[in-house]
Amino acid sequence: MSQRRLYVGLDIRNDISQIAVLGPMLQEPEILDPGGNENGIDYPTRVAVPGTKEYIEGFLEKIYRQEPVVAAGRETDPVNILAAFFRKILSKTRKKYPNESIRQLVVTTEYRDYRLIGIIYQALSKIGIQRDRAMVIDRRQSFIYYVLSQKKELWINHVGVFDYTKDRLMYLQMETDRYKRPMLAAVEERDYSDYIPMFQEKDSTEEEKNSIFEGMVQGAIHGKIITTLYMTGNGFEGGFAGAVMKKLCVGRHLFQGDNLYVAGACYCAREMSGERRLEEFVYLDEDTVEVNISINVYTDGKPQEILLVRAGTPWHQIDHEIDLIPDGDRELELNVKNMRTKDKAKQCIPMEGIPGRTDRKARIGLQMRFAGKEKCIVTVRDKGFGDFYPSSCRIWEKTITIE
């Protein structure tokens, strides 16, 4: 039987996608080459329609915009389309590592849409990869995981990336609060897409385009101590702004390539699997929760603190449940620690729904979900205790406001 030892990253885009693998004994992600493809490491984001010679392309944008995806003249379920694509591209890992299977998969995409993320999870579930082995993150998180997985001298100060595609030009800059423990990491994002028409102007000389680009870059990084700059995206193909990049290398590191996000997803997969190497950092943005929520239990022959919610996780992706057997407890006590303010609090959930059975005569299901980054919904279920004490079918909830 194959062993689950592969950490896999997927960068899915509307036109092309990339896949990277951290296999056994590897310290850096290996970008899988599709072979025989003139686009190098890029896979066309398309799937074949069964029984026809037709391919479905451009479906990711349509799913994001909630537009119908039509194949062979019929509207097709987007979950099935994505599942077929994932099955196809993930088969590359089996060819490369026939005796290994996926331990953790992270998908990164530019689309920050809860509905699309839900469809991605459904598609992965359809091919046998459940939420416990999968995570969906956006490009900013991929950027953070990539940077923090590099040598410290590359991110000792600020780090920026210019992402230039045919219709988008974004600048992302990593910020860290080194006075907090763990250190807090965030991303500042700016949109420079208005510059693209000037770079594509046929009547402008290369010198003029370089001058415009250099002014844009200097404006973006003004007043910041930048250790490293990354240039990524197909907009830089053909040597665009090559002369400017040589100037930018003075006093800082500069790298150009198009595999930053897929490699970052791969590093994230390793981190999420439990092989944590970046525990001293917590990534926070407008979608991630700022608290760790835990519970004290007795398990494996000793008292332990079990983490239920980890700070830095997107709130809409949290859905965690554990089973507990109360030992005389009349309430569940949760530990809440805010990683930004360092404030600590206790939240108590009464177990009034199972009177008389809290002395090891009940199995309690404790589920954690969020209805926003500041609202945690705690659901408690009476699951009974085998044939001796059937479940009362009682379910009760409490909403915790995160301050």
Helix content: 10-25%
Tally of helical segments: 8
Structural class: alpha+beta
Overall outline: globular
Kindly describe this structure.
Helices cover 22% and strands 36% of the residues. The chain has 403 residues and is an alpha+beta fold. Strands 1, 2, 3, 4, 9 and 10 form a six-stranded mixed beta sheet that branches. Strands 15-14-11-12-13-16 form a six-stranded mixed beta sheet, with helices on one face. α2 packs across α3 and α4 packs across α8. The protein is globular and about 85 Å long.
List keywords for this structure.
403 residues; alpha+beta; six-stranded mixed β-sheet; 8 helices; 24 strands; 22% helix; globular
Put the structure in a nutshell.
The protein is α+β, with helices and mostly antiparallel strands and 403 residues long. The protein contains eight helices and 24 strands. Strands 1, 2, 3, 4, 9 and 10 form a six-stranded mixed β-sheet that branches. A six-stranded mixed β-sheet has the order 15-14-11-12-13-16, covered by helices on one side.
Helix and strand topology:
Layout lengths: L2 E10 L3 E7 L7 E2 L11 E2 L1 E3 L6 E3 L1 H6 L4 E3 L2 E3 L1 H19 L3 E10 L4 H13 L7 E5 H10 L9 E7 L4 E9 L5 E9 L4 H4 L6 H16 L4 E7 L9 H7 L4 E4 L3 H13 L8 E3 L7 E9 L2 E8 L9 E6 L6 E8 L5 E7 L13 E7 L4 E8 L12 E7 L2
Parallel strand pairs: 1-9, 9-10, 11-14, 13-16, 14-15
Antiparallel strand pairs: 1-2, 2-3, 2-4, 5-6, 7-8, 11-12, 12-13, 17-18, 17-20, 19-22, 20-21, 22-23, 23-24
Helix pairs in contact: 2-3, 4-8
